[in-house]
Amino acid sequence: MQNRIGPWRHALSRLLQALALVTGTFLAASALAASASAGTLIVQSTTSTRNSGLYDHILPAFEKDTGIKVKVVAVGTGQALKNAARCDGDVLVVHARPDEEAFVAKGYGIRRHPLMHNDFVIVGPKDDPADVRHARSAAEALTRIARTRAPFVSRGDESGTHKKEKALWKAAGIDPTAASGSWYREAGAGMGATLNMAAGMGAYTLSDRGTWLAFNNRGDLALLFSGDPALYNPYGLIIVNPAHCPNVNLKDAQAFRDWLLSEKGQKLIAAYRVNGEQLFFPDALPQKDGEAEKKDK
Amino acid sequence: MAASFYRDLAEIVALSLEVSLGAVALAALLAIPLGAVLALGRFWGRGALVLLVNAAMGLPPVVVGLGLYLLFSRAGPLGPLGLLYTPTAMIIAQTILVIPIIASFTRETIEGLAAEYGDMLAVLRAGFGQRLATLLAEARPALLTAILAGLGRALSEVGAVMIVGGNIAHYTRVMTTAITLETSKGNLALAMALGGILLALALGLNLAVGLFRERMRERAHA
Fold first, then answer.
1. Do B29 and A22 touch (CB under 8 A)?
2. ipTM of this complex
3. Does an H or E element contain A132, and which?
4. Which residues on chain A are in Cβ contact (under 8 Å) with B181?
């Protein structure tokens, strides 16, 4: 028996050695690759800026100007803030101002810079059973939806849009979660997936204008309500604080911030259009952005 | 648009293949010996380990992704390796998902073959190593099927690579995460077309392995 186990043990230990070697080399190589990745920047971002195509429009110019490679991880604003708090990113581009300010106050971020804005819109089925079209405010539009118990799809994912939606319900004095599962449907999904769902079930939903304009599966959905100042949607840029996260690529993050807030970056943002419509309005340009906003209405 | 579209597509297909084939190769390297040990070894806890490996075939990819995210996050224990949002992390995630499939298939096959050839090998007074080598050689066609099943799991998986890879354009975007992204943009036709390409890819790989297996059988019986 002993002489049978002998060679088997020997073979097994050789195999294990080989595996250890392979795994070790593999990990060492990837660690090396990671340390050699200076000059790359991880941006934790909201989804609307990616899904609308904004990054495809501006990042090639930035990479050409600076030689810095930008990697965008687009998740909801809530998740982006959490990922950044765990140091898994260098820069944040998000849209939930109170949360952004809290992020900076906790020392996770250096400072919030106003980057750009657009607005939220209420979309829904063209025949508009809740008559949202004739509401005088966003709160009234939501009140009409709740009163008629027309289906409404909520993001339900703690994204910037979801946070805004919750604030709007609160302003209307309605707790829609009491109707969760009936007319109020919490998707727990990104903006695009939520729009797909709303289109599929003829429901209302709140969307940022950028994602809505770039969205290609509208079906029977139409933009029914916009223009209330309560629907203002500002995007902020925050560099993750190196005091909290020593791994932050501060130099490139600053270059990214300075470039985006520069006249060139801001003009590129303003120049981005889908089907002739401007999606984002720069907030760091000293003048002239008021004109662009008027055209929007 | 056309030229850059096809370049992007080629890039995404190439990364899908690189990640999934890499993961399956790594998984096979680990799982075939594991399956063989589970089939032939007689040690304490073997039954529990077999059960565990079988159950792990049903691991939800998103849970594997989340676990690895916590591990690879900068705030996590392996943060300093800088593996989060890299193709390497994606390979590791898929390797974990594929190992149980290949290991289970291997164990099942070797156990069956051991029952079939056990007497003969005992008569020949074959040692453990010889028995293992004989059985593995006999199991080759079945192991290829196991590897294909693993490849299917890897190529179709989206939950794990989405979390640990981050779906970064030109870096960690693969077929499945691209399909998710295009769906969320409402580009359903494009998403469906990408799905078709993924299917064609799987078909091609299965065809190639199938032909290879036929030739292997023919040689074995020649």
1. yes
2. 0.82
3. none
4. 51
Are A111 and A237 members of one domain? yes
Q: Which residue range is the domain that position A126 belongs to?
A: 119-231
Given A231, A252, A286, the domain boundary residue is A231
Q: B2-174 has which fold? A: MetI-like fold (1.10.3720)
- Number of domains comprising chain A: 2
Domain range annotation of chain B: 2-174
Q: Are B68 and B164 in contact (CB under 8 A)?
A: yes
Question: CB distance B168–A37 less than 8 Å?
Answer: no
CA distance B210 to chain A (A): 28
Residues of chain B positioned with their CB less than 8 A from the CB of A190: 184
Determine phi and psi for B173, rounding to 5 degrees: -90, 120
Note whether A165 and A290 are same-domain residues: no
Confirm or reject contact between A3 and chain B (CB < 8 A).
yes
Token pair 């982006």 in the structure block, residue: A80
Nearest to B166 among A4, A73, A216 (CB): A73
Q: What is the pLDDT of residue B119?
A: 83
Look-up of token digits 């300093």:
B80
Q: Do A88 and B84 touch (CB under 8 A)?
A: yes
Give A227-285 pLDDT, tens digit per residue: 999 999 999 999 999 999 999 999 999 999 999 999 999 999 999 999 899 999 999 97
Q: Does pTM top 0.90 for this prediction? A: no
Residues of chain B where predicted confidence (pLDDT) is lower than 70: 1-2, 222
Long-range CB contacts (within 8 A, 24+) of A57-62: A57/A268, A57/A271, A57/A272, A58/A260, A58/A265, A58/A268, A58/A269, A58/A272, A61/A264, A61/A268, A62/A256, A62/A259, A62/A260, A62/A265
